[in-house]
Design a protein that fits this description.
Blueprint lengths: L5 E3 L9 H9 L4 E4 L3 H10 L6 H7 L6 H9 L23 H19 L6 E6 L6 H10 L4 E5 L6 H9 L4 E4 L2 E2 L8 E4 L1 H5 L10 E6 L2 H10 L6 E5 L32 H6 L4 E4 L7 H7 L4 E4 L1 H4 L8 H12 L5 E4 L9 E4 L8 H6 L11 E4 L5 E4 L5 H6 L4 H4 L5 H8 L38 H10 L3
Amino acid sequence: MLQPKIIQGGMGVAVSGWTLARAVSCLGQLGVVSGTGIAIVLARSLQLGDPTGKLRHALDHFPVPGVAERILDKYFIPGGKPPHVPFKLAAMPTLHPGPALVELTVAANFVEVFLVKDGHTGLAGINYLEKIQLPTLPSLYGAMLANVDYVLMGAGIPRAIPGALDQLAAGEKAELKIDVLGALPGEDFLSTFDPKDLWKGPAPKLKRPQFLGIVASATLAMTLAKKASGRVDGFVVEGDTAGGHNAPPRGPMQLSATGEPIYGPRDVADLDKIRELGLPFWLAGSYGQPGKLDEALRRGAAGVQVGTAFAFCAESGLQSELKQQALQLSREGKARVFTDPVASPTGFPFKVVQMPGTLSDASVYDSRPRICDLGYLRHLYRKADGTAGYRCPAEPIDDFIKKGGTFAEAQGRKCLCNSLSANVGIGQISQDQRLELPLLTAGDDGANIARFLKPGSDSYTAADVINLLLGKAA
Protein backbone atom coordinates (compact mmCIF):
# COMPACT_ATOMS: atom_id res chain seq x y z
CA MET A 1 0.00 0.00 0.00
CA LEU A 2 1.36 3.42 -0.99
CA GLN A 3 2.19 5.49 2.08
CA PRO A 4 0.67 8.97 2.17
CA LYS A 5 2.83 11.99 2.93
CA ILE A 6 -0.08 13.77 4.60
CA ILE A 7 -2.49 12.24 7.08
CA GLN A 8 -5.51 14.42 7.81
CA GLY A 9 -6.17 14.16 11.54
CA GLY A 10 -9.24 12.39 12.89
CA MET A 11 -10.86 15.16 14.92
CA GLY A 12 -13.65 15.55 17.41
CA VAL A 13 -17.19 14.36 16.84
CA ALA A 14 -17.70 14.58 13.04
CA VAL A 15 -15.32 17.51 12.53
CA SER A 16 -13.36 15.15 10.30
CA GLY A 17 -16.48 13.59 8.84
CA TRP A 18 -16.71 11.78 5.54
CA THR A 19 -16.95 15.00 3.48
CA LEU A 20 -13.55 16.23 4.65
CA ALA A 21 -11.89 12.82 4.60
CA ARG A 22 -13.20 12.17 1.08
CA ALA A 23 -11.82 15.50 -0.18
CA VAL A 24 -8.37 14.64 1.21
CA SER A 25 -8.52 11.07 -0.05
CA CYS A 26 -9.43 12.18 -3.56
CA LEU A 27 -6.34 14.41 -3.52
CA GLY A 28 -4.07 11.42 -2.96
CA GLN A 29 -3.51 11.72 0.78
CA LEU A 30 -4.98 9.82 3.73
CA GLY A 31 -8.43 11.11 4.66
CA VAL A 32 -9.38 10.11 8.19
CA VAL A 33 -12.83 10.15 9.76
CA SER A 34 -13.33 10.44 13.50
CA GLY A 35 -14.86 7.38 15.10
CA THR A 36 -15.73 9.27 18.29
CA GLY A 37 -19.47 9.28 19.06
CA ILE A 38 -20.18 8.11 15.55
CA ALA A 39 -23.42 6.34 16.51
CA ILE A 40 -24.73 9.69 17.78
CA VAL A 41 -23.76 11.32 14.49
CA LEU A 42 -25.70 8.84 12.36
CA ALA A 43 -28.77 8.74 14.60
CA ARG A 44 -29.05 12.54 14.80
CA SER A 45 -28.20 13.19 11.16
CA LEU A 46 -31.04 10.86 10.15
CA GLN A 47 -33.36 12.74 12.50
CA LEU A 48 -32.38 15.94 10.66
CA GLY A 49 -33.73 14.32 7.49
CA ASP A 50 -30.51 13.33 5.69
CA PRO A 51 -31.14 16.13 3.17
CA THR A 52 -28.50 14.96 0.67
CA GLY A 53 -29.62 11.32 0.85
CA LYS A 54 -25.99 10.24 1.24
CA LEU A 55 -26.53 8.43 4.54
CA ARG A 56 -29.39 6.40 3.12
CA HIS A 57 -27.29 5.69 0.03
CA ALA A 58 -24.57 4.25 2.26
CA LEU A 59 -27.07 2.29 4.35
CA ASP A 60 -28.44 0.79 1.13
CA HIS A 61 -25.01 -0.86 0.76
CA PHE A 62 -24.75 -2.12 4.33
CA PRO A 63 -24.26 -5.87 3.83
CA VAL A 64 -25.94 -7.34 6.93
CA PRO A 65 -29.63 -7.95 6.17
CA GLY A 66 -32.24 -6.05 8.15
CA VAL A 67 -29.92 -3.68 10.03
CA ALA A 68 -30.35 -0.61 7.81
CA GLU A 69 -34.12 -1.00 7.81
CA ARG A 70 -34.28 -1.13 11.61
CA ILE A 71 -32.08 1.96 11.96
CA LEU A 72 -34.11 3.95 9.44
CA ASP A 73 -37.38 2.94 11.06
CA LYS A 74 -36.12 4.18 14.42
CA TYR A 75 -34.29 7.39 13.51
CA PHE A 76 -35.05 8.69 10.01
CA ILE A 77 -37.46 11.64 9.87
CA PRO A 78 -38.37 12.75 6.30
CA GLY A 79 -37.83 16.48 6.08
CA GLY A 80 -36.14 16.53 9.49
CA LYS A 81 -37.45 16.99 13.01
CA PRO A 82 -38.86 20.39 14.06
CA PRO A 83 -36.07 22.61 15.48
CA HIS A 84 -37.65 22.78 18.95
CA VAL A 85 -37.99 19.01 19.34
CA PRO A 86 -35.17 17.19 21.18
CA PHE A 87 -33.22 14.46 19.43
CA LYS A 88 -34.22 10.91 20.26
CA LEU A 89 -31.40 9.43 22.33
CA ALA A 90 -29.63 6.20 21.53
CA ALA A 91 -28.65 3.89 24.39
CA MET A 92 -25.45 4.78 26.26
CA PRO A 93 -22.45 2.46 25.77
CA THR A 94 -22.19 -0.28 28.39
CA LEU A 95 -20.14 -3.40 28.98
CA HIS A 96 -22.98 -5.50 27.57
CA PRO A 97 -24.79 -3.33 25.00
CA GLY A 98 -28.11 -4.32 23.52
CA PRO A 99 -28.32 -5.46 19.89
CA ALA A 100 -29.84 -2.15 18.72
CA LEU A 101 -26.83 -0.12 19.92
CA VAL A 102 -24.40 -2.68 18.48
CA GLU A 103 -26.13 -2.50 15.10
CA LEU A 104 -26.20 1.31 15.15
CA THR A 105 -22.50 1.46 16.06
CA VAL A 106 -21.44 -1.00 13.35
CA ALA A 107 -23.57 0.73 10.72
CA ALA A 108 -22.44 4.23 11.67
CA ASN A 109 -18.78 3.32 11.22
CA PHE A 110 -19.58 1.57 7.95
CA VAL A 111 -21.47 4.62 6.63
CA GLU A 112 -18.63 7.08 7.30
CA VAL A 113 -15.93 4.95 5.70
CA PHE A 114 -18.16 3.88 2.80
CA LEU A 115 -18.87 7.51 1.90
CA VAL A 116 -15.16 8.38 2.00
CA LYS A 117 -14.30 5.59 -0.43
CA ASP A 118 -17.40 5.53 -2.65
CA GLY A 119 -16.53 5.88 -6.33
CA HIS A 120 -12.75 6.33 -6.17
CA THR A 121 -9.61 4.45 -5.15
CA GLY A 122 -8.16 6.81 -2.52
CA LEU A 123 -7.20 5.75 1.00
CA ALA A 124 -9.51 6.03 4.00
CA GLY A 125 -8.65 5.84 7.69
CA ILE A 126 -10.58 6.05 10.92
CA ASN A 127 -9.43 7.38 14.29
CA TYR A 128 -10.44 6.14 17.74
CA LEU A 129 -9.54 6.98 21.33
CA GLU A 130 -8.23 4.20 23.57
CA LYS A 131 -9.96 6.01 26.45
CA ILE A 132 -13.35 5.28 24.84
CA GLN A 133 -13.25 1.50 25.05
CA LEU A 134 -16.83 0.25 25.17
CA PRO A 135 -17.82 0.85 21.50
CA THR A 136 -14.40 0.00 20.07
CA LEU A 137 -14.95 -3.56 18.79
CA PRO A 138 -18.24 -2.99 16.92
CA SER A 139 -16.81 0.30 15.65
CA LEU A 140 -13.76 -1.44 14.19
CA TYR A 141 -15.93 -4.08 12.58
CA GLY A 142 -18.18 -1.52 10.91
CA ALA A 143 -15.20 0.34 9.46
CA MET A 144 -13.72 -2.95 8.23
CA LEU A 145 -16.99 -3.88 6.53
CA ALA A 146 -16.48 -0.71 4.47
CA ASN A 147 -12.89 -1.76 3.62
CA VAL A 148 -11.11 0.85 5.73
CA ASP A 149 -7.39 1.10 4.92
CA TYR A 150 -5.97 2.48 8.20
CA VAL A 151 -7.01 2.47 11.84
CA LEU A 152 -5.35 5.09 14.05
CA MET A 153 -5.65 5.13 17.83
CA GLY A 154 -4.21 7.20 20.66
CA ALA A 155 -5.18 8.63 24.08
CA GLY A 156 -3.86 5.57 25.84
CA ILE A 157 -1.88 2.41 25.07
CA PRO A 158 -3.88 0.44 22.47
CA ARG A 159 -1.93 -2.82 22.79
CA ALA A 160 -4.99 -5.02 22.27
CA ILE A 161 -6.21 -3.44 19.04
CA PRO A 162 -3.85 -5.08 16.49
CA GLY A 163 -4.90 -8.54 17.68
CA ALA A 164 -8.57 -7.53 17.62
CA LEU A 165 -8.15 -6.45 14.00
CA ASP A 166 -6.72 -9.88 13.18
CA GLN A 167 -9.66 -11.65 14.83
CA LEU A 168 -12.32 -9.48 13.24
CA ALA A 169 -10.71 -9.81 9.81
CA ALA A 170 -10.96 -13.60 10.20
CA GLY A 171 -14.65 -13.31 11.13
CA GLU A 172 -13.90 -14.45 14.69
CA LYS A 173 -14.97 -13.18 18.11
CA ALA A 174 -12.77 -10.45 19.59
CA GLU A 175 -12.38 -9.52 23.24
CA LEU A 176 -11.09 -6.33 24.82
CA LYS A 177 -10.11 -5.98 28.46
CA ILE A 178 -11.86 -2.91 29.85
CA ASP A 179 -10.26 -0.61 32.41
CA VAL A 180 -12.36 -0.74 35.59
CA LEU A 181 -11.40 1.36 38.61
CA GLY A 182 -11.10 -0.76 41.73
CA ALA A 183 -10.97 -4.10 39.91
CA LEU A 184 -9.42 -6.80 42.08
CA PRO A 185 -6.19 -8.59 41.10
CA GLY A 186 -6.96 -11.19 38.45
CA GLU A 187 -10.47 -9.80 37.92
CA ASP A 188 -11.09 -9.04 34.24
CA PHE A 189 -13.98 -7.12 32.74
CA LEU A 190 -14.30 -7.91 29.04
CA SER A 191 -16.04 -6.30 26.10
CA THR A 192 -16.76 -8.88 23.41
CA PHE A 193 -17.97 -8.72 19.84
CA ASP A 194 -18.67 -11.73 17.64
CA PRO A 195 -19.37 -11.00 13.98
CA LYS A 196 -21.42 -14.21 13.80
CA ASP A 197 -23.96 -12.69 16.19
CA LEU A 198 -24.44 -9.78 13.80
CA TRP A 199 -24.68 -11.98 10.73
CA LYS A 200 -26.78 -14.65 12.49
CA GLY A 201 -24.34 -17.16 11.09
CA PRO A 202 -20.84 -17.43 9.60
CA ALA A 203 -19.15 -14.06 9.05
CA PRO A 204 -17.10 -13.22 5.94
CA LYS A 205 -13.36 -12.71 6.03
CA LEU A 206 -12.37 -9.05 5.70
CA LYS A 207 -9.27 -7.05 4.82
CA ARG A 208 -7.15 -6.32 7.88
CA PRO A 209 -6.39 -2.57 7.87
CA GLN A 210 -3.02 -1.06 8.70
CA PHE A 211 -2.76 -0.06 12.37
CA LEU A 212 -1.01 3.19 13.38
CA GLY A 213 -0.53 3.89 17.07
CA ILE A 214 -0.61 7.56 18.06
CA VAL A 215 2.21 8.04 20.56
CA ALA A 216 3.91 10.86 22.41
CA SER A 217 7.16 9.09 23.29
CA ALA A 218 9.67 6.54 22.05
CA THR A 219 8.90 4.44 25.14
CA LEU A 220 5.26 4.10 24.13
CA ALA A 221 6.20 3.35 20.53
CA MET A 222 8.58 0.60 21.67
CA THR A 223 5.94 -0.84 24.01
CA LEU A 224 3.42 -1.04 21.19
CA ALA A 225 5.90 -2.46 18.70
CA LYS A 226 7.07 -5.20 21.06
CA LYS A 227 4.06 -5.97 23.28
CA ALA A 228 0.98 -5.37 21.14
CA SER A 229 -1.33 -8.31 20.52
CA GLY A 230 -0.66 -8.22 16.79
CA ARG A 231 1.15 -6.35 14.05
CA VAL A 232 1.71 -2.61 14.45
CA ASP A 233 2.26 -0.97 11.06
CA GLY A 234 3.55 2.43 12.11
CA PHE A 235 3.12 5.44 14.39
CA VAL A 236 1.91 8.98 14.49
CA VAL A 237 4.30 10.79 16.84
CA GLU A 238 2.28 13.61 18.36
CA GLY A 239 3.75 16.58 20.21
CA ASP A 240 2.06 18.56 22.97
CA THR A 241 1.06 21.38 20.60
CA ALA A 242 -1.44 19.13 18.79
CA GLY A 243 -5.15 19.72 19.28
CA GLY A 244 -7.68 17.64 21.20
CA HIS A 245 -6.34 15.40 23.95
CA ASN A 246 -2.65 15.64 24.80
CA ALA A 247 -0.56 13.11 26.66
CA PRO A 248 0.09 14.37 30.20
CA PRO A 249 3.60 15.68 30.90
CA ARG A 250 6.01 13.08 32.25
CA GLY A 251 6.46 13.22 36.01
CA PRO A 252 4.29 15.12 38.50
CA MET A 253 1.84 17.55 36.92
CA GLN A 254 3.09 21.13 37.17
CA LEU A 255 1.08 24.11 35.97
CA SER A 256 2.25 27.40 34.51
CA ALA A 257 1.19 30.80 35.83
CA THR A 258 -1.74 30.65 33.42
CA GLY A 259 -2.82 27.21 34.68
CA GLU A 260 -1.57 25.09 31.78
CA PRO A 261 0.49 21.89 32.09
CA ILE A 262 4.21 22.50 31.74
CA TYR A 263 5.94 20.33 29.15
CA GLY A 264 9.70 19.99 29.08
CA PRO A 265 12.56 18.21 27.31
CA ARG A 266 11.45 14.82 28.71
CA ASP A 267 8.20 15.20 26.74
CA VAL A 268 9.93 15.47 23.36
CA ALA A 269 9.86 12.12 21.57
CA ASP A 270 13.26 10.57 20.80
CA LEU A 271 13.02 10.12 17.04
CA ASP A 272 16.33 8.24 16.88
CA LYS A 273 14.84 5.44 18.99
CA ILE A 274 11.61 5.48 17.00
CA ARG A 275 13.54 5.21 13.73
CA GLU A 276 15.36 2.16 15.13
CA LEU A 277 12.03 0.31 15.28
CA GLY A 278 12.06 0.17 11.49
CA LEU A 279 8.43 1.19 11.10
CA PRO A 280 7.10 4.23 9.24
CA PHE A 281 6.10 7.21 11.34
CA TRP A 282 4.41 10.55 10.78
CA LEU A 283 5.01 13.68 12.86
CA ALA A 284 2.10 15.64 14.33
CA GLY A 285 1.67 18.82 16.34
CA SER A 286 2.10 22.18 14.54
CA TYR A 287 3.10 20.56 11.24
CA GLY A 288 0.45 22.39 9.21
CA GLN A 289 2.94 25.06 8.15
CA PRO A 290 4.96 25.68 4.99
CA GLY A 291 8.21 23.73 5.02
CA LYS A 292 7.18 21.42 7.86
CA LEU A 293 6.62 18.43 5.58
CA ASP A 294 10.12 18.86 4.19
CA GLU A 295 11.46 19.02 7.74
CA ALA A 296 9.65 15.83 8.74
CA LEU A 297 10.95 13.95 5.70
CA ARG A 298 14.50 15.06 6.50
CA ARG A 299 14.08 13.66 10.01
CA GLY A 300 13.22 10.25 8.62
CA ALA A 301 9.43 10.47 8.86
CA ALA A 302 7.12 9.16 6.16
CA GLY A 303 5.23 12.45 6.36
CA VAL A 304 3.04 14.50 8.70
CA GLN A 305 -0.35 14.37 10.32
CA VAL A 306 -2.21 17.68 10.26
CA GLY A 307 -5.43 18.38 12.10
CA THR A 308 -6.05 22.01 12.97
CA ALA A 309 -5.58 23.37 9.45
CA PHE A 310 -8.18 20.92 8.14
CA ALA A 311 -10.56 21.49 11.08
CA PHE A 312 -11.39 25.01 9.88
CA CYS A 313 -11.48 24.36 6.12
CA ALA A 314 -14.70 24.46 4.11
CA GLU A 315 -15.19 20.69 4.08
CA SER A 316 -14.90 20.12 7.82
CA GLY A 317 -17.98 19.39 9.90
CA LEU A 318 -17.65 22.44 12.18
CA GLN A 319 -20.57 24.83 11.96
CA SER A 320 -19.72 27.63 9.53
CA GLU A 321 -20.26 30.39 12.09
CA LEU A 322 -17.70 28.78 14.42
CA LYS A 323 -15.19 28.60 11.58
CA GLN A 324 -15.78 32.25 10.77
CA GLN A 325 -15.31 33.32 14.39
CA ALA A 326 -12.08 31.35 14.64
CA LEU A 327 -10.74 32.73 11.35
CA GLN A 328 -11.60 36.28 12.41
CA LEU A 329 -9.77 35.85 15.71
CA SER A 330 -6.77 34.50 13.78
CA ARG A 331 -6.86 37.45 11.35
CA GLU A 332 -6.88 39.89 14.26
CA GLY A 333 -4.10 38.12 16.12
CA LYS A 334 -6.47 37.42 19.02
CA ALA A 335 -6.80 33.64 18.74
CA ARG A 336 -5.82 31.78 21.89
CA VAL A 337 -5.73 28.07 22.62
CA PHE A 338 -5.62 27.03 26.28
CA THR A 339 -4.33 23.61 27.33
CA ASP A 340 -6.89 22.83 30.01
CA PRO A 341 -5.67 20.24 32.53
CA VAL A 342 -9.18 19.42 33.81
CA ALA A 343 -11.72 20.07 31.03
CA SER A 344 -11.83 16.50 29.73
CA PRO A 345 -13.49 13.78 31.82
CA THR A 346 -10.72 11.46 30.60
CA GLY A 347 -8.15 13.17 32.82
CA PHE A 348 -5.94 13.97 29.80
CA PRO A 349 -5.10 17.63 29.12
CA PHE A 350 -7.42 19.00 26.44
CA LYS A 351 -6.81 22.00 24.21
CA VAL A 352 -9.64 24.54 24.22
CA VAL A 353 -10.12 27.47 21.84
CA GLN A 354 -11.04 30.54 23.86
CA MET A 355 -14.18 31.83 22.16
CA PRO A 356 -17.12 33.87 23.47
CA GLY A 357 -20.43 32.02 23.67
CA THR A 358 -18.81 28.61 24.08
CA LEU A 359 -18.08 26.56 27.20
CA SER A 360 -14.57 28.08 27.25
CA ASP A 361 -16.30 31.12 28.79
CA ALA A 362 -16.52 30.54 32.54
CA SER A 363 -19.92 32.25 32.83
CA VAL A 364 -21.34 30.09 30.03
CA TYR A 365 -19.91 26.95 31.62
CA ASP A 366 -21.30 27.86 35.04
CA SER A 367 -24.78 28.42 33.60
CA ARG A 368 -25.03 24.96 32.04
CA PRO A 369 -26.82 22.32 34.14
CA ARG A 370 -24.68 19.21 34.45
CA ILE A 371 -26.13 16.26 32.58
CA CYS A 372 -24.75 12.96 31.29
CA ASP A 373 -27.06 11.52 28.65
CA LEU A 374 -24.59 10.29 26.01
CA GLY A 375 -22.07 8.55 28.23
CA TYR A 376 -19.10 7.91 25.96
CA LEU A 377 -16.56 9.28 28.45
CA ARG A 378 -17.94 7.59 31.55
CA HIS A 379 -15.46 5.71 33.73
CA LEU A 380 -16.20 2.16 34.76
CA TYR A 381 -15.76 1.29 38.43
CA ARG A 382 -16.19 -1.87 40.47
CA LYS A 383 -19.30 -1.83 42.61
CA ALA A 384 -19.49 -3.62 45.96
CA ASP A 385 -21.32 -6.54 44.37
CA GLY A 386 -18.51 -7.09 41.84
CA THR A 387 -20.36 -5.68 38.84
CA ALA A 388 -19.33 -2.66 36.81
CA GLY A 389 -20.82 0.76 37.48
CA TYR A 390 -20.57 3.91 35.38
CA ARG A 391 -19.74 7.45 36.44
CA CYS A 392 -18.52 10.59 34.69
CA PRO A 393 -16.65 13.49 36.33
CA ALA A 394 -18.78 15.84 34.17
CA GLU A 395 -22.14 14.47 35.38
CA PRO A 396 -24.09 16.12 38.26
CA ILE A 397 -21.62 16.30 41.12
CA ASP A 398 -23.94 14.73 43.71
CA ASP A 399 -24.51 11.75 41.41
CA PHE A 400 -20.77 11.40 40.83
CA ILE A 401 -20.00 11.45 44.55
CA LYS A 402 -22.75 8.89 45.29
CA LYS A 403 -20.97 6.54 42.89
CA GLY A 404 -17.65 6.91 44.70
CA GLY A 405 -16.20 9.89 42.88
CA THR A 406 -14.86 12.96 44.68
CA PHE A 407 -15.72 16.63 44.48
CA ALA A 408 -12.15 17.45 43.44
CA GLU A 409 -12.30 15.00 40.51
CA ALA A 410 -15.44 16.72 39.20
CA GLN A 411 -14.24 20.31 39.45
CA GLY A 412 -13.94 22.04 36.08
CA ARG A 413 -14.92 19.00 34.02
CA LYS A 414 -16.83 19.74 30.84
CA CYS A 415 -19.28 17.52 28.98
CA LEU A 416 -17.33 16.85 25.79
CA CYS A 417 -19.94 14.41 24.46
CA ASN A 418 -22.59 17.13 24.24
CA SER A 419 -20.39 20.13 23.46
CA LEU A 420 -18.47 18.44 20.65
CA SER A 421 -21.79 17.33 19.16
CA ALA A 422 -22.93 20.96 19.30
CA ASN A 423 -19.80 21.97 17.37
CA VAL A 424 -21.10 20.15 14.29
CA GLY A 425 -24.76 21.13 14.46
CA ILE A 426 -26.21 18.11 16.23
CA GLY A 427 -26.31 19.50 19.75
CA GLN A 428 -29.23 18.47 21.92
CA ILE A 429 -32.11 20.77 22.81
CA SER A 430 -33.77 20.10 26.14
CA GLN A 431 -37.48 19.96 26.87
CA ASP A 432 -37.21 23.51 28.26
CA GLN A 433 -35.55 24.64 24.98
CA ARG A 434 -32.02 24.93 26.38
CA LEU A 435 -29.46 24.38 23.65
CA GLU A 436 -26.21 22.54 24.28
CA LEU A 437 -23.34 24.89 23.49
CA PRO A 438 -20.06 24.28 21.65
CA LEU A 439 -16.54 23.83 22.96
CA LEU A 440 -13.90 24.10 20.25
CA THR A 441 -10.57 22.36 20.30
CA ALA A 442 -7.54 23.11 18.13
CA GLY A 443 -3.80 22.79 18.28
CA ASP A 444 -1.53 25.71 19.04
CA ASP A 445 -1.56 26.35 15.27
CA GLY A 446 -5.17 27.50 15.68
CA ALA A 447 -3.76 31.00 16.09
CA ASN A 448 -2.45 30.89 12.52
CA ILE A 449 -5.26 29.39 10.45
CA ALA A 450 -5.81 32.68 8.61
CA ARG A 451 -2.60 31.89 6.70
CA PHE A 452 -4.66 29.61 4.44
CA LEU A 453 -7.01 32.39 3.30
CA LYS A 454 -6.42 33.78 -0.15
CA PRO A 455 -6.72 37.57 -0.55
CA GLY A 456 -10.36 38.62 -0.48
CA SER A 457 -11.58 35.22 0.69
CA ASP A 458 -13.15 34.30 4.02
CA SER A 459 -12.79 30.53 3.65
CA TYR A 460 -10.34 27.96 2.36
CA THR A 461 -10.48 24.33 1.23
CA ALA A 462 -8.76 21.07 2.04
CA ALA A 463 -6.98 21.41 -1.31
CA ASP A 464 -5.56 24.76 -0.20
CA VAL A 465 -4.07 23.09 2.87
CA ILE A 466 -2.58 20.21 0.92
CA ASN A 467 -1.17 22.48 -1.77
CA LEU A 468 0.50 24.67 0.84
CA LEU A 469 2.00 21.65 2.60
CA LEU A 470 3.22 20.03 -0.60
CA GLY A 471 4.39 23.25 -2.24
CA LYS A 472 7.84 23.11 -0.64
CA ALA A 473 8.02 19.38 -0.08
CA ALA A 474 10.74 17.26 -1.55
